[in-house]
Amino acid sequence: MPRTERGVAPVAGPRLSREDTIVDMPLVLSGPWTREARAHAASQEARDAVIRYFRKAVKTRNWTPWDDLPLGEMAARGQFLSEDTITIIEAYLGVEDYVGDYVEEGLRLCEGRRERRTLQLAWGSEECKHAEAWELVLLHSGRRTPAQLAAYRDRVGEHTWTMRDHHPGLATPLGVVCYAMVQERATYFNYEEMRQRLRHEYGLPARSTPFEHARGQQIGAAGAFKTVANDEIAHHGIFLELVRIYLRYLPQDTLEALLTVLGGFSMPALQLIPNGAALAEAMQRTLLHTPLKQVRHVNNPILNTLGLDNRRALERAVQASKLLPAGLGPAHVSLGRAGEFVVSMSPDPPEPARDAAPAPGALAAPAVLVAGHA
Ligand SMILES: [Fe+2]
Ligand SMILES: [Fe+2]
């Protein structure tokens, strides 16, 4: 039952449960690895990853801002929060409130990739809760009135965010995935930092108290930030998974997109939110998120997870990827931590032997090193 013209063949295995059907079927992939075949195989794997993501998201992160956040506790402790904390949460509200533009721009760049469209819609349905959560935090903490919040969000709505502005490399399907992977982890980091700040200002210990642990939710606004941060790290996870898939099948394009995105990364819509200047001052005072923290807690962990030591290794990998021979599949190419590629130079086995080809990831001898200029 081949899925491509030259053989994407299922391997015999144990009977699968309904939960595992489609997405966990082990496959042996073989060539010829034309660009079209690479894109097709990547699309198939991405589709399976999105199905797994969607299934888990719906079943395990199913919450609403209006029903599932500890609003009463926010009211009881709102007076303890500093002005900088309120300014920063209000800025988070503004950034999250551009969700419609983020979804629209992402959909425009799906270019017929149905798995990407599905993810974009599912992701948007989760993201749209976050602005509502921050509005509730500000309102129930007693620090903004309904009229102030409505006026703020109206001013947000006066502008349209576009990915062309201030986000190098973003305006391609691969750029969207790379940017989202970085931005989601940065957002997670920001929200976790804010959660710790909230706990400190509430007079709570850094770690959950036995009471919070027993009920499964932190106090007040800290609980809201924990819930939203949980969404953000899940978003980071699915975009990271997609980048890993594209990296295997389209190494040169993916590495170039990642280098461009990392080189010019900034959080979205900071230039558009109504309290941008106040946010910049609050960030300088609190040091909640600095360029050094971005590298240490966002960029480098991402590169390490992708199998690269650091930014220099990524730059080397970009150069080396340009030297990769055409026509090799992911089973014949391996990326080293310093940014070098090891490639198998063996030709594909003859057609009858393809179903017995080595598993993806295995290398056939002889292998050569491909290293670009650092
Ligand atoms: Fe969000
Ligand atoms: Fe997110």
Tell me what the structure shows.
By secondary structure, the chain is mostly helical. The chain is built from 13 helices and five strands. The chain has two domains: 35-306, Orthogonal Bundle (Ribonucleotide Reductase, subunit A), CATH 1.10.620.20; 313-374, no CATH class. The protein has helices spanning 35-60, 71-77, 83-96, 99-108, 114-140, 146-156, 173-202, 210-215, 220-249, 251-263, 276-286, 291-305, 311-321, and strands at residues 8-10, 27-29, 333-335, 341-344, 367-370. It has a three-stranded antiparallel beta sheet, covered by helices on one side. Strand 3 and strand 4 form a beta hairpin. The chain starts with 7 loop residues before the first strand and ends with a strand. Residues 1-26 and 350-366 have low confidence and may be disordered. Bound molecules: fe (ii) ion (2 copies). One fe (ii) ion is lined by residues 96, 127, 130, 187, 232.
